[in-house]
Amino acid sequence: MRIVVAHNRYREAQPSGENTIVDSEIAQLTDAGVEVLPFIRSSDEIPSMSKAAKALLPISPIWAPRAQEDLSRLLTAHRPDVLHLHNPYPLISPWVVRTAHRHGVPVVQTVHNYRQVCSSGIYFRDGMICQDCKGRALGVPAVVHRCYRNSRAQSALMATTLAVHRGTWRSVDRFIALTSAIADHLRDYGIPDERIVVKPNSVPDPGRPAPLGDGFLYMARLTPEKGLDLLLEAWRRHPVGALGTLRVAGDGELRPLVEAAAADRADVVYLGQLDRAGVRAAVEASAVVIAASMWHDVLPTVIIEALASGRPVLGTALGGIPYLVGADGPREPAGTGSAETASAVPGGGVAPLPAGVVTGTAGWVVPPEPAAMAAALPVARAGAAALSQPARLRYEQTFHPDVVTKRLLDIYATLPRP
């Protein structure tokens, strides 16, 4: 089987889980015996472009003529079985779907965000969830609020691109929804069920989980939509040391918040931006990983990394987080059954959970509110040992590379030819 993987890499200065996932998926397909033909562009190329190429940048999200020429040559020379598209912006353009179909090549797209509808791709604006452009022929609110790169002109271009390519997206042969929440988003956009397949991402197997550490780990971009301020407010509602240590990893505009918290409380530690070895060490030092997102986060890779290491997850009940921890959608028989509203207590038996806290196969979800998160923190600390093995089992059954790669190959094999 021969597959073209098309992806516009995000700038390396802004660490991207999507870049990491694409690289990992290419490696997994190659290991499975698939011939992968990367069709990769990078936003880091833009500063070094010629003046002529830069002059065409404003139309690139809509058409990207150079990319279409390059792709046509690749498709003619290699006659692949499938084109698998990830991010097309800004240098590839959704037009590659039309180019592939013109060459008789079916197209699969992995949907990593909400950019069929939302110019910023995250349904989040001014500190809160926003879906003002949903259902509109043209996303005028995105232009008014400068949702794309804080620029009215660039927001207008992206809103126009989304309007122009509505038909393009609806011609994609198969959409890979990373979670059940993304599948719902695609149905709402008008994609029929038979063209949507739920297949999550995976991360490499780190091996047998180390014994649980203590306390909590929050690892994410330090930006408003990731919920750092929510978590810190919830943490401050407990006495210093009552919950063990809160480790915070990452960087971003809210870094001063965590630096101030670490200076104020001995139970908050700021780890900064971590490399892969640092990530694994931080996960192993903790008992529970926190995903405090304030937006409909699609599929935080940190959750899969936590499950792979046998660490249950405490998250907000938004986007794909309930699916990931088994509190929504398919659940494996991992010892806890379906989502529960009670938790184990020392000496046996169960105690009612605080209002809003739901236990899933591999963790807990709560409303995105400080009071709910504060109430869930001691529940998660007390229940971490009981959910450690189920967390690892959920990874093995749903997110392990062998499982995910087989699912992807099955998707390719069932595609119709245009």
Q: TL;DR?
A:
With 418 residues, the protein is an alpha/beta fold.
Question: How would you describe this structure in keywords?
Answer:
38% helix, seven-stranded mixed sheet, 418 residues, alpha/beta, 15 helices
Please tell me about this protein's structure.
- Helix 9 (228-235) crosses helix 14.
- The protein is built from 15 helices and 17 strands.
- The protein is globular, with a radius of gyration of 22 Å.
- A hairpin with a 2-residue loop joins strand 5 (124-125) and strand 6 (128-129).
- The strands form four sheets. The chain has a seven-stranded mixed sheet with strand order 11-10-9-12-13-17-16. It has a six-stranded parallel sheet with strand order 2-1-3-4-7-8, sandwiched between helices. The protein has a two-stranded antiparallel ribbon with strand order 5-6.
- It is α/β, with parallel strands linked by helices and 418 residues long.
What is the distance, rounded to the nearest whole angstrom, between the alpha carbons of the first and last residues?
A: 17 Å
Q: State mean pLDDT (0 to 100 scale).
A: 91
Shape: globular
Contiguous low-pLDDT stretches (5 residues minimum) are 329-342, 344-350
Strand content: 15-25%
**Sequence of strands across the biggest β-sheet:** 11-10-9-12-13-17-16
Overall SS class = alpha/beta
Count of separate DSSP helical elements: 15
The radius of gyration over CA amounts to 22 Å
Number of strands: 17
Largest sheet: 7 strands, mixed
Helical fraction equals 25-40%
